[in-house]
């Protein structure tokens, strides 16, 4: 249902963002990929999407810590495809540490990439969506938009912030044909989760298996990781006309984590 539409997905060089970009392309959208990635790997991903789904795909290396680069990413996408109909604010990083030892530069980077980048992207993309009277803004929040875990102060603060930003923007554009939502996954097996295992082992004094079973999946009643494809399917649904009345909400897809 996305033929003729264009989507920007930040942080789509791997994990959840890549699954969302591929799902949108499968549904017919032209996509702008983004992320911190080796140019050769990215070119492979980009050309594969074009070949597999018969859409146009571009890659932007815009750094999500930089508001000007984010504004340029949106402007370049509008120039190339004529519009940004769908914006997915997905780029994110994690750092695990007790707050009194939390590196200040990690705090600043997480707030910039996981929260402020959504502000900059929305700010740049909304005028075009308003002009066309149609738009879909989706941010990847987390179960950590609703509940906390120790040692993740910056991440939990940023994801709660995404839930608040989502509500606010939804109210501002409620009559403009634009919906604004967030998706709150539980643990999804991606490089982001894999990378935090060593620090969690150190912070809690556990083995790798204990971290997986007693820390990560302990929170998730299904005892299974959510898959990137499941998150992408929810994102695709939010872009459909059937979802036009869903706005200002953060939807859980977390194996029951936040039901507890
Ligand atoms: P990932 O590490 O596979 O992907 C992160 C993406 O963000 C990559 O494409 C990376 O290049 C990009 N990125 C990081 N820093 C960037 C920067 N400065 N500028 C531009 N791009 C940058 O991780 P993922 O698990 O797919 O995470 C995607 C989103 O999903 C994040 O917002 C994350 O917080 C959220 N999330 C993940 C989980 C999980 O369990 N994996 C759960 C809930 C929410």
Automatic annotation (TrEMBL):
<dbReference type="InterPro" id="IPR020904">
    <property type="entry name" value="Sc_DH/Rdtase_CS"/>
</dbReference>
<dbReference type="InterPro" id="IPR036291">
    <property type="entry name" value="NAD(P)-bd_dom_sf"/>
</dbReference>
<dbReference type="InterPro" id="IPR002347">
    <property type="entry name" value="SDR_fam"/>
</dbReference>
<dbReference type="GO" id="GO:0003858">
    <property type="term" value="F:3-hydroxybutyrate dehydrogenase activity"/>
</dbReference>
<dbReference type="GO" id="GO:0032787">
    <property type="term" value="P:monocarboxylic acid metabolic process"/>
</dbReference>
<dbReference type="InterPro" id="IPR050259">
    <property type="entry name" value="SDR"/>
</dbReference>
<protein>
    <submittedName>
        <fullName>3-hydroxybutyrate dehydrogenase</fullName>
    </submittedName>
</protein>
<comment type="similarity">
    <text>Belongs to the short-chain dehydrogenases/reductases (SDR) family.</text>
</comment>
<dbReference type="Pfam" id="PF00106">
    <property type="entry name" value="adh_short"/>
</dbReference>
<dbReference type="InterPro" id="IPR011294">
    <property type="entry name" value="3-OHbutyrate_DH"/>
</dbReference>
